[in-house]
């Protein structure tokens, strides 16, 4: 079995379309299709179920996926060994993260890592959902809770805090908030209730609020509503410095603590390049959290 054919197979399995895989591989879609057809013919069974929605792995494709991933890891590991641990990090690393972390923490952390490693290319996927590392949607993911299953390596990165917050202009225009009960007279900003993908994100339940007049599945949309004085909602302390005029509300009555976890496929622990990147990411994220949360405390 040719490694180059397996590389094409992995791209289609991850992208679920010939055109998207072709962009990743930098070849034309027709060539990708021919390579998949050739591999299926050599193996004597279909690897994908084709439909208007894209290419989904067949049972045979699912069985081949783990072997193809291990072959990929062996190739990357060999390159790492030849390069040596003293060399700078190179190649591409893809990180999945909830959009709060992806917008307010990862950009500056990743930029610093890339400054020290000019040959490194980092992609941040900011989506409000859990990433499938087995399908290699990302090389690693930051999550707000430990996964319950899978061959995964989980590292607790750091704790972070969240508080109620609103813009000073909003607070000046509306009745004072002296207790949690007073919140019921205010316009609340938060997640769309039936689109909360992790119980750790159900912040407003702790404030006993069930009605969310301004709701979005995106932390960034929520933050921009609050920044423009549209209402009151739960905000990461590390995001507050990015919103001049935002102040914490009732910090003595409602203070939430959550944790970030770095999740990787268990087999990737053998890859020196990803280990070194994960170490730099963890160190940088912890430092940036301390810096931003300290700045947030000075604002109130």
Automatic annotation (TrEMBL):
InterPro entries: LysR-type_TF_proteobact-type (IPR058163), LysR_HTH_N (IPR000847), LysR_subst-bd (IPR005119), WH-like_DNA-bd_sf (IPR036388), WH_DNA-bd_sf (IPR036390). Keywords: DNA-binding, Transcription, Transcription regulation. This is LysR family transcriptional regulator. Belongs to the LysR transcriptional regulatory family. Residues 1-58 form the HTH lysR-type domain. It holds the Pfam family LysR_substrate. It comes from the Bacteria. Gene3D superfamilies: 3.40.190.290, Winged helix-like DNA-binding domain superfamily/Winged helix DNA-binding domain (1.10.10.10).
């Amino acid at each position: 079995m040719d490694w180059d054919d397996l590389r094409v197979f992995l791209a289609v399995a991850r992208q679920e379309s010939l055109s998207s895989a072709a962009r990743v591989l930098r070849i034309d879609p027709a060539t990708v299709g021919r390579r998949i057809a050739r591999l299926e013919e050599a193996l004597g069974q279909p690897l994908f179920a084709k439909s208007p929605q894209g290419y989904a792995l067949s049972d045979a494709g699912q069985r081949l996926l783990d072997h193809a991933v291990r072959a990929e890891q062996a190739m990357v590991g060999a390159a790492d060994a030849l390069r040596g641990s003293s060399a700078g990090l190179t190649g591409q690393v893809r990180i999945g993260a909830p959009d709060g972390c992806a917008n307010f923490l990862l950009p500056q952390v990743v930029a610093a890592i890339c400054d020290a490693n000019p040959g490194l290319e980092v992609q941040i996927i900011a989506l409000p959902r859990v990433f499938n590392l087995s399908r290699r949607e990302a090389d690693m993911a930051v999550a707000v809770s430990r996964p319950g299953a899978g061959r995964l390596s989980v590292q607790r990165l750091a704790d972070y805090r969240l508080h109620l917050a609103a813009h000073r202009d909003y607070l000046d225009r509306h009745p004072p908030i002296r207790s949690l009960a007073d919140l019921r007279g205010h316009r609340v900003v938060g997640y769309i209730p039936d689109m909360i993908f992790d119980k750790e994100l159900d912040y407003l339940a702790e404030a006993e609020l069930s009605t969310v007049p301004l709701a979005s599945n995106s932390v960034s949309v929520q933050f921009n509503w609050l920044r423009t004085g549209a209402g009151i909602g739960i905000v990461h302390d590390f995001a507050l410095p990015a919103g001049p005029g935002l102040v914490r509300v009732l910090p003595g009555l409602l203070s939430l603590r959550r944790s970030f976890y770095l999740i990787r496929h268990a087999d990737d622990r053998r890859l020196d390049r990803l280990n070194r990147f994960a170490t730099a990411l963890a160190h940088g994220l912890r430092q940036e959290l301390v810096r931003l949360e300290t700045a947030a405390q000075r604002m109130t």
